[in-house]
Design a protein that fits this description.
The chain is α/β, with parallel strands linked by helices. The chain folds into 2 domains: 56 residues; 312 residues, Glycosidases (TIM Barrel). 45% of the residues lie in helices and 12% in strands. It has 11 helices and 10 strands. The strands form 2 sheets. It has an 8-stranded parallel β-barrel with strand order 3-4-5-6-7-8-9-10, surrounded by 4 helices. Strands 1-2 form a two-stranded antiparallel ribbon. The chain starts with a helix and ends in a 21-residue tail after the last helix.
Length: 431
């Protein structure tokens, strides 16, 4: 039997072991922070609640405020962008109203005067007031028909300000009217018809030029000329803006008597239909011999004689010859001129060009057409060779000659010949 003493020792041992085990567990828990004492309970709950509020409520408020800030910022940016766009639009509108477009080279147009007549050696309107035509001659429409298009004619009227265009139709050179067959004739007449219509719609005068050149004597194709002008005048009888140039540049051995013979047969064909049309007659020696004309002028009304010059070749002597004829009262129209050499090439001779302009424009008010409207690779061409545009030309597209012409037109406000005479179209007078 186990004695009482042994039982007592056993109980004591169990108690001690229990205390050791419980104390060990308690100590470990205390070290790891897993034990909460009663006096810590309230503080712990407060901390828990604080943590809960911190992790749930505060972020929610921060996010809301952040969204409000972003929305306000975005609204301000949109408002600013709208204001900038409106300011830019207003500025562009003002620019459009106050400044010409980038491609607008001249903001003035020369007048369209209506029906014209020749009186006391001058070209005049229905009231007898002196008029001024300034414009361009195409190169041969056989070569460059595109520059006689409605698109080009309108553009030149709107942006260069010219009021006349000359349609140069070669008679024998390069698919000329008289040498390339019936189909070619119809094609050339269609080009002329479109150009006349465009000139009429844009308040411009148009010269139909029978462009003799290598066929030095116009009598060589006189029968064809009679047929052609008979057809043209019947077609355009009601057009007060059409001018007929019955031969371009008689040359070689052709005399004024030869030209008179031709003119006396061709002019009546026109007069039988239109008794008042303006008719231009070429003069011998490449349209420069006016002395012969003074000795024996034609016996028709509303006739003008053509004179041609090229500033690179023709200088003081040629100006004096023209001045003498004008002083004698001969009605002259310069249907072709250039600012380069007489062969149509070379550089612009600005000094001589200015001398010529001072004379024909400021001294005498002679009407004129500059040669030539094309992009041919030569000095007299008005369009640069690398430009294939037919309208809306800019300064970079044009030759020096073209820019010279545009500059002269842009400076024309009032006549230097007579106070109160205005060459500029009425809608441009306030500029």
């Amino acid at each position: 039997m186990v004695s009482k003493k042994q039982k007592f020792l056993t109980v004591i041992l169990v108690i001690v072991l229990a205390i050791v085990i419980v104390g060990g567990v308690f100590g470990i828990s205390l070290v790891k922070g897993r034990v909460t004492f009663p006096w810590q309970l309230e503080t712990s709950e407060a901390k828990t609640e604080k943590v809960k509020e911190s992790t749930q409520e505060e972020p929610k408020l921060v996010i809301k405020e952040k969204k409000q800030d972003e929305s306000a910022k975005k609204e301000q940016e949109l408002k600013k962008a709208k204001e900038e766009a409106e300011a830019a639009a207003e500025k562009e509108t003002e620019k459009t109203e106050e400044e010409p477009a980038d491609n607008l080279l001249n903001d003035m147009k020369l007048k369209y005067y209506g029906k014209l007549a020749v009186e006391d050696s001058h070209l005049v309107d229905a009231d007898g007031h002196e008029v001024l035509l300034m414009g361009v001659s195409t190169h041969g429409i056989n070569w460059y028909p595109e520059y006689a298009s409605a698109e080009t004619i309108k553009s030149l009227r709107d942006t260069w300000g010219i009021n006349v265009i000359r349609l140069a139709m070669y008679t024998s050179d390069y698919n000329g009217y008289c040498v390339a067959g019936k189909e070619n004739q119809e094609k050339l007449k269609d080009i002329i018809d479109d150009a006349v219509e465009a000139a009429t719609e844009n308040d411009m005068y148009v010269i139909i030029d029978w462009h003799t050149l290598n066929d030095a004597d116009p009598n060589e194709y006189k029968a064809e000329a009679i047929q052609f002008f008979g057809e043209m005048v019947r077609k355009y009888e009601s057009n007060e803006n059409v001018i007929y140039e019955i031969c371009n540049e008689p040359n070689g051995d052709t005399t004024w008597d030869d030209v008179r013979k031709y003119a006396n047969e061709v002019i009546p064909v026109i007069r039988n239909v239109d008794k008042d049309a303006i008719i231009l007659v070429g003069t011998p020696n490449w349209a420069s011999d006016l002395d012969s004309v003074l000795d024996k002028p034609l016996d028709f009304d509303n006739i003008m004689y053509t004179y041609h010059f090229y500033a690179g070749t023709h200088h003081k002597a040629e100006r004096n010859a023209l001045r003498d004829a004008l002083d004698e009262g001969l009605p002259v129209f310069i249907s072709e001129y250039g600012l380069v050499d007489a062969d149509g090439d070379g550089d612009l001779n600005e000094k001589e060009a200015d001398y010529w302009y001072d004379m024909i424009r400021k001294e005498y008010g002679v009407s004129s057409c500059m040669w030539n409207l094309s992009n041919k690779d030569e000095g007299s061409a008005m369009i640069n060779a690398d430009c294939d545009k037919l309208s809306d030309f800019t300064e970079e597209d044009l030759s020096e000659s073209a820019m010279w012409l545009i500059d002269q037109i842009s400076q024309l406000k009032h006549s230097d010949l007579e106070e109160g005479v205005d060459w500029i179209a009425p809608e441009n007078n306030n500029r």
